[in-house]
Amino acid sequence: MMDSFTYGGIRLEYEVSGQGRPLVFLHGLGGSVRQIQGVCQPIAGVRLICPNQQGHGGSGADWERFGFDRLAEDVIGLLDHLKLEKAAFAGISMGAAVCLNLAVRFPERVEKLLLIRNAWLDGPMPEPVRRAYYDLGQSLRQGGLDAFRETRSYPVIMETTLYTQNAFTIPFGEAFNRRNWQKYCILPGQAPVASLEALRAISVPTLILANRNDFCHPFTYGEILSRYIPGSSFREIPDKDSDPTGHKEQVNRALRDLMLE
Question: For 2-123+191-260, which CATH class?
């Protein structure tokens, strides 16, 4: 059941299921709690906490302050709302970037980290990806998929995997993504942390997952993060197009390993 709280003047949705050790699982750009529900299998003894981050699902947004710092602060607000001193964190893509921001800025609140399909390092997304998201946002603003088909990014996206094609076309059928088009124009140009060197201060158990054949989530980003985060573990997992079942199984194996060790 979806609940909500207000933080910094913004109403934010979240959902809690299960009982036990808290795990906050953050969705990706354009996703929602439903994305996590479609991936994460229940783990006995784990309390799963899934927010709809700003501009996603039914949560509000402050576009003047929208960025990784504010998204991370929202999560801290959720912990305070739930009276939790700390939690384990998992994140997909944008959610993984928010996790990095949390671990650097609020280390006392972070117990463990699972970073899945990283899309950011210490700077903006690569230019072709950033341009594609910008064109998506502007096309959502202008009213439809036909506008996106006229952009220079559309043929680039159509040369990628089916999963990526869907990620750039499904939002046109989702009211919350049409309404909150701004996020696609803002976040790809930002950075979750000031430098890779800042990641050397992360001292909690960290597991990083990456797959190949992914336009928005370079495999090398996972490798780079694993070199900078002390003691972190890195795993290659199947991509969603070639082996969707294996991809999901490996994500859930990583979640179990993270929470049950």
Answer: alpha beta
